[in-house]
């Protein structure tokens, strides 16, 4: 039986593809959480010279504006997928379509737990491409974009493999087994299975061996491996597999599915990156140790010391989660606004203030994380007979901070240290 996709509303609270932002944005202008997910899947096409390319776009309800219409709430947005050559200069193909969402529950309309999932299929010759996906709200005209480069593989030969398709859910009904893909690639950091499937294309009836493994993207440690044997029919074969009983720390991991030869060495492989996140938090923490270090501007010395000296990972994680739970301003919701805002600032500092050290450790990063975006920035990069400097002003605090670049390499140092109430984190 060939399984097929059914797209419907699911309850998830995954962090979502980074939107374009302005430098030093105010809180209302900057969304650290990605605003939508995309995934690209290569499958065997009907033409030998072209590959079937499925592009999924997942948009959370809280990223579009719902309007009250009679007894329901409705939102409309457009999606544009543009495919360029590898140089990003030549447009190969482009497609735009509209999506409409309707719900009778206002709480659903503003929740990141619900999303709308779209699929469009392209036929492309094998090669390197650059994809641009744009989502635009029909009412507010707010636009989010994501870009990615991707290799479209040639699926030919005696046996070939599709891309790995992660599974979010499966539903059995009289029509068959309906699958919703896990477009985000996020998994919860707990002992739970990671289901996926791969299409194997064979030109004969044969038995073949495969290997499934999962390794850390950070230290490259292997956290899972298994060998399986499958009987293949001539044509399309769908292999379903679940990585069971794995307990991984937060971070990025790579799943590899390999076709093996007689000596159990890989002939061809496909990979998929998955992200293990903390349960109940919308922001993806990839390194718990580093996240604890980055809490220096909000946590007390004794609190940090307790976390760092915890006997094992689970104890450390519990102290970390308890710390943020105590500071959650709205416990009735799944989102911890203080947590998200704090690590949004950390991420922004790393992207904008890093030089020979990470941005969160820099003077500019420290001020930005503690106080947020300044109300005004006065830049002086080329003043005569003066080293480059910037003045940050916070009108509500009646404070200004001067940073000087003494080296000429963008290493701006604060000339007046933070002290007293100014050194307390302000959400």
Order of helices and strands: EEEEEEHEEEEEEEEEEEEEHHHHHEEEE
Overall mean pLDDT: 86
CATH class of the largest domain: Mainly Beta
Instruction: Pick out the low-confidence regions.
Output: 1-33
State the separation between the terminal residues, measured CA to CA. 54 Å
**Total of DSSP H or I helical runs spanning 4+ residues:** 6
Alpha-carbon Rg, integer: 25 Å
What helical percentage do the residues reach? 10-25%
Number of domains: 4
Q: What can be said about this structure in brief?
A:
This protein is mainly β. It is built from six helices and 23 strands. The chain has helices at residues 106-109, 288-293, 301-308, 313-326, 337-352, 363-371, and strands spanning 4-5, 37-44, 51-60, 67-69, 72-85, 91-103, 115-124, 127-137, 143-152, 159-161, 165-173, 176-181, 186-188, 194-202, 206-216, 222-232, 235-243, 251-260, 266-277, 376-380, 389-394, 399-405, 412-414.
